[in-house]
Structures are given as structure tokens and as C-alpha cells.
Amino acid sequence: MQERDEEVVFMGYTRKELKRAFEEVQNRENWKLPIDTVMIASVNPTDDVPVISKVTAAVQFYTASTPTFVREGAHWRVRAAGYYEAVGA
User: Fold this and answer.
1) What is the pLDDT of residue 70?
2) Is the N or the C terminus of the chain less surrounded, counting Cβ atoms within 10 Å?
3) What are residue 60's phi and psi, to 5 degrees?
């Protein structure tokens, strides 16, 4: 199974990278529900670009929805429709 985790599967990221990034923002009650959470932001917003790119890829991979990021002081507000809404379930 480890070899599958290290395989690049989506937008240049491995399954392991996507899983870790998604776990940071997923809905804790049910990963298929909408996402509305915060991530700690860097002092310089451009330093967050690689993290935002990876989280975007992870949310798209797992939920088929695209997240939005809004800077709120020292945090990024992350929102996405979630799997159920994205697939019409």
C-alpha cells in the first residue's frame, strides 16, 4: 500500500500529500459535508501559495468541489461545497 501512497495521482501530488492536506480542512463530522474551517496564515500571503495550491488540489480530489480562501487576519477561511453537494447527492 505504501507504493500507492507515494504515487502521483492528481495535479502533481501524491495520494499521501493529498490525504494530509485534506485532513487539515475536512469537515470533522463527515468528510463529505461542506467545508468551513480556518488555517493559520503566514505573515506574507505569498508564502501560503504552495499550501493553498495543495489544499485546493486535495479538496478537488476528495470532494469534486473547489475551495475558496479568504484572508481573515492571521488565518485563511477555507470553504467548499463538499462531496454531497458537488455530486448532487
Assistant:
1) 97
2) N
3) -65, -40
36 bridge partner residues: 79
Q: What percentage of the chain carries pLDDT values higher than 70?
A: 97
Can you tell me which residue has the cell 492571521? Answer: 74
Question: 3: which residues sit within 8 A by CB, 6+ positions away?
Answer: none
In this prediction, residue 89 carries a pLDDT of 87
Q: Which residue has cell 485546493? A: 56
Q: What is the mean pLDDT of residues 17-28?
A: 98
Integer CA distances (angstroms), 9 to 6, 15, 17, in order = 9, 6, 10
Residue with cell 475551495: 67
DSSP readout, 8-61?
A: EEETTEEHHHHHHHHHHHS-SS-TTSPEEEEEEPPSSGGGGHHHHHHHHHHHHH
Tell me which residue has cell 447527492.
89
